[in-house]
């Protein structure tokens, strides 16, 4: 029965995330917010909402290892598995802003995470720092994109005016669906961990992390198959920034997160290593090719092997 709850939770999270993103984008366009800001804020929130809901619920119910495993595993999956598979299908061009702004911010947030966990716990005040950093990042994005509203936004805004109530309904459905999906996924994951005697952290870093990264994986692969090169590495880096600043930030404010020796040891080095690895892959001709994608996928397989070992 626990497998049914796990799969059902994953499906509901994916569908609810789609409803939330679609509705939120429609509402934002109604108020004349640029598509750039929507992509880096609302869509980033929508695709990371499953991680946030699962992590907060896990912490409240006394399963903090699932919380931190979910974030760490999701970030590794985004950069290694999702980005790797996407570039194997279609090489990705890297925007200059990704190299100069997005990657350094993600790397700073990741390094801060590695420092926060050195004392074996992520305190509430460290979560507050993360939340402040998230607000500052979003403010910076909005301020610098104030003059970047696209011509198509006017057309989209006119359409959104006609569908405003429908978009509000989508947001409500998405929020409710995420709450139920997170509940079912967490219940199933905890029971599976108990059945097999596997640590909650390992379940969080593998099964739960993969599940909550499915929206990014599906979106990126579909875009690659359609040869929509506007789906770039910046989107995945933005998701990782949100996972660290928002998910860990909010979760640790709600309840301080204890950190196991496994996270402090090998796993955090995997996160730091893969986060740094994509930098030389990006700067080579400002493009991540299929060979680089294969390297990333192999690195993810290696991570899963050592996590389960």
From TrEMBL:
Keyword line: Membrane, Transmembrane, Transmembrane helix
InterPro entries attached to this UniProt entry: K/Na/Ca-exchanger, NaCa_Exmemb, NCX_ion-bd_dom_sf
Subcellular location, record wording: Membrane
Biological process, per Gene Ontology: intracellular calcium ion homeostasis
Gene Ontology CC: plasma membrane
Alphabetical list of Pfam families matching this protein: Na_Ca_ex
Superkingdom assignment: Bacteria
Transmembrane segments: 6-29, 36-56, 76-94, 101-122, 128-146, 167-186, 201-224, 236-254, 266-284, 291-308
UniProt GO molecular function: calcium channel activity; calcium, potassium:sodium antiporter activity
Topology in membrane: Multi-pass membrane protein
Domain Sodium/calcium exchanger membrane region as annotated: residue spans: 3-142, 168-308
Protein's UniProt name: Calcium/sodium antiporter
Organism from which the protein derives: Vicingus serpentipes
């Amino acid at each position: 029965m626990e497998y049914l709850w796990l799969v059902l939770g994953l499906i509901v999270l994916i569908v609810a995330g789609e409803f939330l993103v679609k509705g939120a984008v429609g509402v934002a366009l109604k108020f004349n917010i640029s598509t750039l800001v929507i992509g880096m804020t609302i869509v980033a929130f929508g695709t990371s909402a499953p991680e946030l809901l699962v992590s907060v619920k896990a912490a409240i119910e006394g399963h903090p290892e699932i919380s931190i495993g979910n974030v760490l595993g999701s970030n590794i999956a985004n950069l290694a598995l999702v980005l790797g598979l996407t570039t194997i299908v279609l090489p990705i061009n890297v925007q200059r802003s990704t190299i100069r702004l997005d990657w350094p911010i993600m790397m700073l947030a990741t390094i801060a995470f590695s420092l926060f966990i050195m004392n074996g716990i992520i305190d509430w005040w460290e979560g507050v720092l993360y939340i402040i950093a998230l607000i500052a990042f979003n403010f910076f994005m909005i301020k610098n994109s104030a003059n970047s509203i696209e011509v198509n936004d006017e057309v989209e805004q006119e359409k959104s005016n006609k569908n405003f109530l429908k978009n509000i309904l989508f947001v409500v459905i998405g929020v409710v669906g995420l709450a139920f999906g997170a509940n079912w996924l967490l219940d199933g994951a905890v029971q599976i961990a108990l059945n097999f005697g596997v640590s909650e952290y390992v379940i969080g870093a593998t099964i739960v992390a993969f599940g909550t990264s499915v929206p990014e994986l599906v979106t990126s692969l579909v875009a690659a198959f359609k040869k929509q090169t506007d789906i770039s590495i910046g989107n995945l880096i933005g998701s990782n920034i949100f996972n660290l600043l928002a998910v860990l930030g909010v979760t640790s404010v709600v309840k301080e997160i204890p950190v196991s020796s496994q996270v402090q040891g090998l796993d955090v080095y995997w996160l730091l290593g893969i986060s740094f690895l994509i930098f030389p892959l990006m700067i080579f001709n400002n493009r991540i090719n299929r060979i680089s994608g294969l390297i990333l996928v192999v690195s993810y397989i290696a991570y899963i092997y050592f996590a389960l070992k």
